[in-house]
Amino acid sequence: MPETRTALVTGATSGIGRATAEKLARDGFKVLVHGRDAGRGAAVVKGIEGLGGRAEFIAADLTDVTAVKQLAEAAKGVEVLVNNAGFSWFGPTTDLEPDTFDALFDANVRSAYYLTAVIAPAMAERGEGVVINLGSMAGQIGLAGGAAYSATKAALTSLTRSWAAEFSPRGVRINTIAPGPVYTDGSSRERLTALGRTTLLARTAEVEEIADVVAFLASRAARYITGAVIPADGGRTAV
């Protein structure tokens, strides 16, 4: 039997992260389920194990750089890193408080940076590995009220290209997925439905549709793809 590959999925207790953890587990990965809430983490692990998969919950506050580095050290042997964790803020530029601005960049950018800074070199030493960053169509187009959030996602896109240049010659593939509107926990379904109507497919995605793209990039079927930004936005940014 081949050795089980391991994936770390950050922000895996809900939304796209949870769907990704479940999909990778179905594909045969042992999944390190990251989150801050132990109860929600245990529920995800139990669900994966109930389907015959393997998973382990690992807690960390990704706004704390020390906790990020500790998580990275604990997970540096993984074959796949999915930088999914983060949050959004939308509103007038003048209304964004400095603490929230800093928290956006800490959670959305700095956490991915320092996880990759530890895990990607370990992958390079082994000669293979995959890093997948969850960006957003907001990082590709202008959205009124989304300046700071969009900037965090644009930063991930830039990091992806630079990391690919740095690590791909040693076998590490690094890509970004840029979803469009997706139905996720805690978001306004009415607002997301309206945004989905602006896409070429005239609908909003389900989390499983984004998880399928993550799973593709994590697989050998994507072995010649690196440094790319993959739109999963129903064609919203195509025209």
What does this molecule look like?
By secondary structure, this protein is α/β, with parallel strands linked by helices. The chain has one domain (6-232): Rossmann fold (3-Layer(aba) Sandwich). 44% of the residues lie in helices and 16% in strands. It contains seven helices and seven strands. It has helices at residues 15-26, 38-50, 65-74, 98-126, 147-167, 189-196, 207-218, and strands spanning 6-9, 30-35, 54-59, 80-83, 129-134, 172-179, 229-232. It has a seven-stranded parallel beta sheet, with helices on both faces. Helix 3 (65-74) packs parallel to helix 4 (98-126) and helix 4 (98-126) packs parallel to helix 5 (147-167).
Short description:
The protein has 239 residues and is of the alpha/beta class. 44% of the residues lie in helices and 16% in strands. The termini are far apart.
The N- to C-terminal Cα distance equals 47 Å
Characterize the overall form: globular
- CATH superfamily annotation: NAD(P)-binding Rossmann-like Domain
Q: Got a strand count?
A: 7
CATH third-level topology: Rossmann fold
Largest pleated sheet: 7 strands, parallel
- Report helical residue fraction: 40-55%
Radius of gyration: 17 Å
Q: What proportion strand? A: 15-25%
What's the structural blueprint in terms of helices and strands?
Elements: E1 6-9, H1 15-26, E2 30-35, H2 38-50, E3 54-59, H3 65-74, E4 80-83, H4 98-126, E5 129-134, H5 147-167, E6 172-179, H6 189-196, H7 207-218, E7 229-232
Parallel strand pairs: 1-2, 1-4, 2-3, 4-5, 5-6, 6-7
Helix pairs in contact: 1-7, 3-4, 4-5
